[in-house]
Amino acid sequence: MAGNQAKTPALPSDTELVQAQAELWRHSLLYLKQMTFKCAIELGIPTAIHNLGGAASLPELNAALSLPPAKQPYLARLMRQLASSGVFTVVDGDAMSGTYGLTPLSSILIDGVRIDGDAHQEAIVLALSSKYYVEAAMGLTDWFRKDHPTPTPPPCGQVFGGLRSLTDCCGGDGTTARAIAKAFPHVRCTVLDLPQVINKAPPSDGSVTYVAGDMFHSIPRSQAVMLKVVLHFWSDENCVKILAQCKKAIPARTDGGKVIIIDVVIGSSTSGPILETQLLMDMLMLVNFRSKQRDENDWSDIFKKAGFSEYKIVKKLGARCVFEVYP
Ligand SMILES: C[S@@+](CC[C@H](N)C(=O)[O-])C[C@H]1O[C@@H](n2cnc3c(N)ncnc32)[C@H](O)[C@@H]1O
Predict the structure, then answer these.
(1) Which of 28, 45, 57, 167 shows the smallest number of beta carbons within 10 Å?
(2) Measured from the CB, is residue 193 less than 6 Å from ligand 1?
Protein backbone atom coordinates (compact mmCIF):
# COMPACT_ATOMS: atom_id res chain seq x y z
CA MET A 1 0.00 0.00 0.00
CA ALA A 2 1.32 3.48 -0.84
CA GLY A 3 2.55 5.30 2.29
CA ASN A 4 0.69 8.50 1.47
CA GLN A 5 -2.74 6.88 1.01
CA ALA A 6 -5.41 8.54 3.17
CA LYS A 7 -6.40 6.51 6.19
CA THR A 8 -9.99 5.34 6.47
CA PRO A 9 -11.59 7.61 9.09
CA ALA A 10 -12.68 5.96 12.31
CA LEU A 11 -16.47 5.78 12.11
CA PRO A 12 -18.46 7.31 14.96
CA SER A 13 -20.41 4.99 17.19
CA ASP A 14 -24.15 4.62 16.54
CA THR A 15 -24.95 7.10 19.29
CA GLU A 16 -22.41 9.59 17.94
CA LEU A 17 -23.70 9.09 14.42
CA VAL A 18 -27.30 10.05 15.15
CA GLN A 19 -26.07 12.95 17.27
CA ALA A 20 -23.82 14.10 14.41
CA GLN A 21 -26.68 13.86 11.94
CA ALA A 22 -28.90 16.00 14.15
CA GLU A 23 -26.05 18.52 14.45
CA LEU A 24 -25.69 18.53 10.66
CA TRP A 25 -29.37 19.39 10.24
CA ARG A 26 -29.20 22.02 12.95
CA HIS A 27 -26.23 23.72 11.25
CA SER A 28 -28.02 23.58 7.91
CA LEU A 29 -31.27 25.00 9.29
CA LEU A 30 -29.89 27.80 11.44
CA TYR A 31 -30.80 30.37 8.80
CA LEU A 32 -34.43 29.74 9.78
CA LYS A 33 -33.69 30.90 13.32
CA GLN A 34 -32.74 34.32 11.98
CA MET A 35 -35.73 34.37 9.62
CA THR A 36 -38.32 33.45 12.27
CA PHE A 37 -36.82 36.11 14.58
CA LYS A 38 -37.17 38.63 11.75
CA CYS A 39 -40.75 37.46 11.15
CA ALA A 40 -41.63 37.94 14.84
CA ILE A 41 -40.37 41.51 14.66
CA GLU A 42 -42.08 42.29 11.36
CA LEU A 43 -45.40 40.90 12.65
CA GLY A 44 -44.98 42.99 15.82
CA ILE A 45 -45.34 40.05 18.23
CA PRO A 46 -43.31 41.56 21.15
CA THR A 47 -45.42 44.75 21.12
CA ALA A 48 -48.67 42.75 20.79
CA ILE A 49 -47.84 40.59 23.83
CA HIS A 50 -46.86 43.71 25.76
CA ASN A 51 -50.15 45.44 24.83
CA LEU A 52 -52.06 42.35 25.95
CA GLY A 53 -50.63 42.78 29.45
CA GLY A 54 -47.35 40.89 29.05
CA ALA A 55 -48.86 37.45 28.30
CA ALA A 56 -51.09 36.25 25.48
CA SER A 57 -52.86 33.09 24.40
CA LEU A 58 -52.70 32.05 20.76
CA PRO A 59 -56.22 33.23 19.83
CA GLU A 60 -55.55 36.59 21.52
CA LEU A 61 -52.26 36.94 19.72
CA ASN A 62 -53.68 35.90 16.35
CA ALA A 63 -56.41 38.52 16.70
CA ALA A 64 -54.10 41.25 17.99
CA LEU A 65 -51.80 40.73 15.02
CA SER A 66 -54.82 40.87 12.66
CA LEU A 67 -53.82 37.54 11.09
CA PRO A 68 -56.41 35.45 9.22
CA PRO A 69 -57.99 32.91 11.66
CA ALA A 70 -56.78 30.05 9.45
CA LYS A 71 -53.19 31.07 10.27
CA GLN A 72 -53.54 30.35 13.99
CA PRO A 73 -52.14 26.76 13.85
CA TYR A 74 -49.13 28.06 11.92
CA LEU A 75 -48.66 30.87 14.44
CA ALA A 76 -48.59 28.15 17.13
CA ARG A 77 -45.66 26.48 15.37
CA LEU A 78 -43.84 29.76 14.94
CA MET A 79 -44.32 30.59 18.66
CA ARG A 80 -43.14 27.13 19.70
CA GLN A 81 -39.91 27.52 17.79
CA LEU A 82 -39.38 31.12 19.00
CA ALA A 83 -39.98 30.02 22.59
CA SER A 84 -37.45 27.24 22.18
CA SER A 85 -34.84 29.73 21.03
CA GLY A 86 -35.46 32.11 23.92
CA VAL A 87 -37.28 34.89 22.10
CA PHE A 88 -40.51 34.25 24.06
CA THR A 89 -41.41 32.09 27.01
CA VAL A 90 -44.35 29.76 27.64
CA VAL A 91 -45.87 31.03 30.89
CA ASP A 92 -48.77 28.60 31.05
CA GLY A 93 -49.78 25.40 29.23
CA ASP A 94 -47.73 23.80 26.49
CA ALA A 95 -45.60 25.28 23.73
CA MET A 96 -48.26 24.84 20.99
CA SER A 97 -51.34 26.08 22.78
CA GLY A 98 -50.23 27.85 25.92
CA THR A 99 -49.85 31.43 26.98
CA TYR A 100 -46.76 33.21 25.75
CA GLY A 101 -44.79 35.85 27.60
CA LEU A 102 -41.82 38.10 26.94
CA THR A 103 -38.18 37.36 27.71
CA PRO A 104 -35.52 40.05 28.24
CA LEU A 105 -34.70 39.68 24.53
CA SER A 106 -38.25 40.25 23.25
CA SER A 107 -38.89 43.01 25.81
CA ILE A 108 -36.26 45.22 24.17
CA LEU A 109 -38.11 44.79 20.89
CA ILE A 110 -41.35 46.40 22.11
CA ASP A 111 -42.12 49.56 20.13
CA GLY A 112 -40.71 52.65 21.82
CA VAL A 113 -38.44 50.89 24.32
CA ARG A 114 -35.18 52.81 24.46
CA ILE A 115 -31.77 51.25 25.01
CA ASP A 116 -28.98 53.82 25.31
CA GLY A 117 -31.39 56.37 23.82
CA ASP A 118 -32.10 54.21 20.78
CA ALA A 119 -35.75 53.25 20.27
CA HIS A 120 -35.18 51.02 17.25
CA GLN A 121 -33.47 47.81 18.34
CA GLU A 122 -35.36 46.02 15.62
CA ALA A 123 -33.56 48.01 12.92
CA ILE A 124 -30.33 46.06 13.42
CA VAL A 125 -32.15 42.73 13.15
CA LEU A 126 -33.98 43.77 10.00
CA ALA A 127 -30.81 45.14 8.40
CA LEU A 128 -28.69 42.10 9.23
CA SER A 129 -31.34 39.70 7.99
CA SER A 130 -31.94 41.64 4.77
CA LYS A 131 -31.10 40.08 1.44
CA TYR A 132 -28.07 42.36 1.07
CA TYR A 133 -26.32 40.88 4.11
CA VAL A 134 -27.48 37.38 3.33
CA GLU A 135 -26.28 37.61 -0.27
CA ALA A 136 -22.94 39.04 0.84
CA ALA A 137 -22.47 36.11 3.22
CA MET A 138 -23.30 33.69 0.43
CA GLY A 139 -20.26 34.98 -1.46
CA LEU A 140 -17.81 34.01 1.31
CA THR A 141 -16.50 30.86 -0.37
CA ASP A 142 -15.86 32.66 -3.63
CA TRP A 143 -14.07 35.43 -1.76
CA PHE A 144 -11.72 32.94 -0.11
CA ARG A 145 -10.94 31.26 -3.42
CA LYS A 146 -10.25 34.39 -5.43
CA ASP A 147 -6.86 36.03 -5.34
CA HIS A 148 -8.13 39.61 -5.14
CA PRO A 149 -5.56 42.07 -6.46
CA THR A 150 -4.56 44.93 -4.17
CA PRO A 151 -6.73 47.89 -5.20
CA THR A 152 -4.86 50.12 -7.56
CA PRO A 153 -4.92 53.84 -6.94
CA PRO A 154 -7.64 55.29 -9.17
CA PRO A 155 -5.77 58.22 -10.72
CA CYS A 156 -2.42 57.07 -11.91
CA GLY A 157 0.84 57.93 -13.63
CA GLN A 158 0.35 61.58 -14.44
CA VAL A 159 -0.74 62.41 -10.88
CA PHE A 160 1.69 60.35 -8.78
CA GLY A 161 4.42 59.44 -11.27
CA GLY A 162 6.71 62.42 -10.68
CA LEU A 163 6.17 62.73 -6.93
CA ARG A 164 8.84 62.28 -4.27
CA SER A 165 6.46 62.43 -1.28
CA LEU A 166 2.74 62.53 -0.57
CA THR A 167 0.56 63.09 2.48
CA ASP A 168 -2.85 61.44 2.33
CA CYS A 169 -4.75 63.89 4.52
CA CYS A 170 -7.70 62.16 6.25
CA GLY A 171 -6.32 58.94 4.83
CA GLY A 172 -8.19 56.70 7.28
CA ASP A 173 -6.51 53.32 7.86
CA GLY A 174 -4.02 53.92 5.04
CA THR A 175 -5.57 51.61 2.44
CA THR A 176 -5.21 54.16 -0.37
CA ALA A 177 -1.72 55.26 0.68
CA ARG A 178 -0.51 51.65 0.79
CA ALA A 179 -1.91 51.04 -2.71
CA ILE A 180 -0.12 54.17 -3.98
CA ALA A 181 3.12 53.15 -2.25
CA LYS A 182 2.89 49.74 -3.89
CA ALA A 183 2.20 51.13 -7.36
CA PHE A 184 4.72 53.99 -7.04
CA PRO A 185 7.46 52.74 -4.70
CA HIS A 186 9.52 55.90 -5.15
CA VAL A 187 6.78 58.01 -3.45
CA ARG A 188 7.24 58.37 0.34
CA CYS A 189 3.68 58.20 1.66
CA THR A 190 2.39 59.61 4.94
CA VAL A 191 -1.15 59.15 6.27
CA LEU A 192 -2.66 61.85 8.47
CA ASP A 193 -5.82 61.13 10.42
CA LEU A 194 -7.29 61.65 13.88
CA PRO A 195 -5.60 59.72 16.74
CA GLN A 196 -8.61 57.43 17.25
CA VAL A 197 -8.34 56.32 13.59
CA ILE A 198 -4.54 56.05 13.41
CA ASN A 199 -4.48 54.01 16.63
CA LYS A 200 -6.63 51.38 14.93
CA ALA A 201 -4.71 51.35 11.61
CA PRO A 202 -3.19 47.98 10.66
CA PRO A 203 0.43 47.50 11.77
CA SER A 204 2.74 49.35 9.39
CA ASP A 205 4.50 47.25 6.74
CA GLY A 206 6.98 50.10 6.41
CA SER A 207 5.55 51.38 3.13
CA VAL A 208 3.72 54.31 4.76
CA THR A 209 4.21 56.50 7.82
CA TYR A 210 1.18 57.16 10.03
CA VAL A 211 0.73 60.50 11.75
CA ALA A 212 -2.03 61.21 14.27
CA GLY A 213 -3.13 64.83 14.20
CA ASP A 214 -5.66 67.46 13.24
CA MET A 215 -5.56 68.84 9.70
CA PHE A 216 -6.89 72.19 10.96
CA HIS A 217 -3.69 72.59 12.99
CA SER A 218 -0.97 71.06 10.87
CA ILE A 219 -0.42 68.73 7.92
CA PRO A 220 2.87 66.81 7.51
CA ARG A 221 5.10 68.44 4.91
CA SER A 222 5.43 66.71 1.54
CA GLN A 223 5.56 67.52 -2.13
CA ALA A 224 1.83 66.89 -2.52
CA VAL A 225 -1.14 66.60 -0.19
CA MET A 226 -4.11 64.47 -1.22
CA LEU A 227 -7.71 64.96 -0.04
CA LYS A 228 -9.73 61.99 -1.27
CA VAL A 229 -13.50 62.23 -0.62
CA VAL A 230 -12.93 64.60 2.29
CA LEU A 231 -13.93 68.14 1.40
CA HIS A 232 -17.58 67.43 0.58
CA PHE A 233 -18.14 66.85 4.31
CA TRP A 234 -17.03 70.38 5.13
CA SER A 235 -18.50 73.88 4.69
CA ASP A 236 -16.87 76.31 2.23
CA GLU A 237 -15.34 78.16 5.15
CA ASN A 238 -13.75 75.02 6.58
CA CYS A 239 -12.59 73.87 3.13
CA VAL A 240 -10.70 77.16 2.78
CA LYS A 241 -9.07 76.57 6.20
CA ILE A 242 -8.12 72.99 5.30
CA LEU A 243 -6.70 74.03 1.94
CA ALA A 244 -4.74 76.85 3.56
CA GLN A 245 -3.09 74.22 5.82
CA CYS A 246 -2.38 72.09 2.73
CA LYS A 247 -0.70 75.08 1.10
CA LYS A 248 1.58 75.49 4.11
CA ALA A 249 2.58 71.82 3.85
CA ILE A 250 3.75 71.84 0.22
CA PRO A 251 6.60 73.59 -1.64
CA ALA A 252 6.19 76.17 -4.42
CA ARG A 253 4.73 75.07 -7.75
CA THR A 254 8.19 75.32 -9.32
CA ASP A 255 9.31 72.58 -6.88
CA GLY A 256 6.37 70.40 -7.88
CA GLY A 257 4.06 71.43 -5.01
CA LYS A 258 0.39 70.56 -5.53
CA VAL A 259 -2.78 69.49 -3.76
CA ILE A 260 -4.59 66.49 -5.24
CA ILE A 261 -8.34 66.52 -4.63
CA ILE A 262 -10.61 63.60 -5.50
CA ASP A 263 -14.24 64.55 -5.09
CA VAL A 264 -17.58 64.98 -6.82
CA VAL A 265 -17.88 67.80 -9.36
CA ILE A 266 -21.56 68.29 -10.13
CA GLY A 267 -22.02 68.67 -13.87
CA SER A 268 -18.75 66.95 -14.86
CA SER A 269 -21.19 64.87 -16.86
CA THR A 270 -24.17 66.88 -18.04
CA SER A 271 -26.78 64.13 -18.23
CA GLY A 272 -27.52 60.47 -17.62
CA PRO A 273 -26.80 58.27 -14.63
CA ILE A 274 -23.60 60.05 -13.57
CA LEU A 275 -25.33 63.41 -13.18
CA GLU A 276 -28.22 61.74 -11.36
CA THR A 277 -25.71 60.02 -9.04
CA GLN A 278 -24.02 63.35 -8.31
CA LEU A 279 -27.35 65.03 -7.54
CA LEU A 280 -28.36 62.15 -5.27
CA MET A 281 -24.96 62.37 -3.53
CA ASP A 282 -25.68 66.05 -2.99
CA MET A 283 -28.99 65.10 -1.30
CA LEU A 284 -27.10 62.55 0.81
CA MET A 285 -24.76 65.28 2.04
CA LEU A 286 -27.70 67.58 2.77
CA VAL A 287 -29.68 64.98 4.69
CA ASN A 288 -26.80 63.54 6.72
CA PHE A 289 -24.21 66.28 7.16
CA ARG A 290 -25.92 69.53 6.11
CA SER A 291 -23.03 69.85 3.64
CA LYS A 292 -23.00 69.70 -0.16
CA GLN A 293 -21.45 68.48 -3.38
CA ARG A 294 -19.97 71.27 -5.50
CA ASP A 295 -19.89 72.27 -9.15
CA GLU A 296 -16.69 73.49 -10.80
CA ASN A 297 -17.42 77.16 -10.02
CA ASP A 298 -17.85 76.37 -6.33
CA TRP A 299 -14.52 74.54 -6.30
CA SER A 300 -12.77 77.31 -8.19
CA ASP A 301 -13.97 79.94 -5.64
CA ILE A 302 -12.70 77.86 -2.73
CA PHE A 303 -9.28 77.34 -4.34
CA LYS A 304 -8.95 81.10 -4.94
CA LYS A 305 -9.99 81.98 -1.38
CA ALA A 306 -7.39 79.55 -0.01
CA GLY A 307 -4.68 81.38 -1.99
CA PHE A 308 -4.05 78.93 -4.84
CA SER A 309 -3.12 80.31 -8.26
CA GLU A 310 -4.45 77.67 -10.65
CA TYR A 311 -6.09 74.25 -10.91
CA LYS A 312 -6.70 71.54 -13.50
CA ILE A 313 -9.17 68.68 -13.67
CA VAL A 314 -6.73 65.94 -14.68
CA LYS A 315 -9.06 62.95 -14.71
CA LYS A 316 -12.75 62.03 -14.49
CA LEU A 317 -13.55 58.98 -12.38
CA GLY A 318 -17.27 58.23 -12.73
CA ALA A 319 -19.10 60.68 -10.46
CA ARG A 320 -15.81 62.09 -9.18
CA CYS A 321 -12.95 64.11 -10.64
CA VAL A 322 -9.29 64.43 -9.81
CA PHE A 323 -8.09 68.02 -9.38
CA GLU A 324 -4.55 69.19 -9.17
CA VAL A 325 -4.44 72.55 -7.41
CA TYR A 326 -1.25 74.60 -7.56
CA PRO A 327 0.12 77.19 -5.10
C1 LIG B 1 -14.57 60.16 4.51
S2 LIG B 1 -13.22 59.72 5.45
C3 LIG B 1 -11.90 59.89 4.31
C4 LIG B 1 -11.87 58.82 3.36
C5 LIG B 1 -10.48 58.48 2.86
N6 LIG B 1 -9.73 59.63 2.42
C7 LIG B 1 -10.72 57.51 1.72
O8 LIG B 1 -10.44 57.85 0.60
O9 LIG B 1 -11.21 56.42 1.99
C10 LIG B 1 -12.92 61.12 6.43
C11 LIG B 1 -11.70 60.95 7.34
O12 LIG B 1 -11.36 62.22 7.83
C13 LIG B 1 -10.84 62.06 9.13
N14 LIG B 1 -10.86 63.35 9.80
C15 LIG B 1 -11.95 64.06 10.20
N16 LIG B 1 -11.57 65.22 10.77
C17 LIG B 1 -10.21 65.24 10.73
C18 LIG B 1 -9.21 66.18 11.17
N19 LIG B 1 -9.59 67.33 11.76
N20 LIG B 1 -7.92 65.90 10.97
C21 LIG B 1 -7.55 64.73 10.38
N22 LIG B 1 -8.43 63.80 9.94
C23 LIG B 1 -9.75 64.05 10.11
C24 LIG B 1 -11.79 61.03 9.71
O25 LIG B 1 -11.26 60.42 10.85
C26 LIG B 1 -11.97 60.07 8.54
O27 LIG B 1 -11.04 59.01 8.58
Answers:
(1) 28
(2) yes
